[in-house]
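Workshop exercise sheet. Pairs work together: one partner reads the sequence aloud, the other fills in the structure field after running the prediction. Swap roles for the next sheet.
Pair: D.N. / O.F.
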Amino acid sequence: MLKKMLSRALVSAPASMLINQLVGICVSLARADGRYSPVTPAFAARFSSDTTAVIVQLLLIGLVGAVFAACSVIFEIERWSFLKQGLVHLGITSVVLIPVCLYCWRPENAAWAMILAGSWLFSYTATWLSQYLVYRHRVRALDAKIKAVNGRSKA
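Structure field:
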């Protein structure tokens, strides 16, 4: 399992970093002022240079991507319920994602920090629930096929 976690993390970290840079380019293009803004001004102000700020943000985004990918193995632990898998995954990823978001995008006050955490929890819950419904539908369809096959074999 550790080997699987590491291989997923090593693929996801640079992919996350690339996506982060593409988002920065898109945001800069959307602003249409001709400036490239890969990090927020508040984040850049924490460092001696913009380059250092970009490197730190890239490394933190890579860490987030690596943790999410490595933790995906949680959903392969068959003896755990889907709810337990989701709660453990949510807990581990939240411990990394929320501090990184707070550090990189620095909310103006506690209310904004709570909104950030709440939006993460809402997004995770919506995603988890949609996956639960999809898999519940698939299981029911498989059960129906099994019952149909068993019904034919008894005749």
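Discussion prompt: The chain has a mean pLDDT of 91. What would you look at next?
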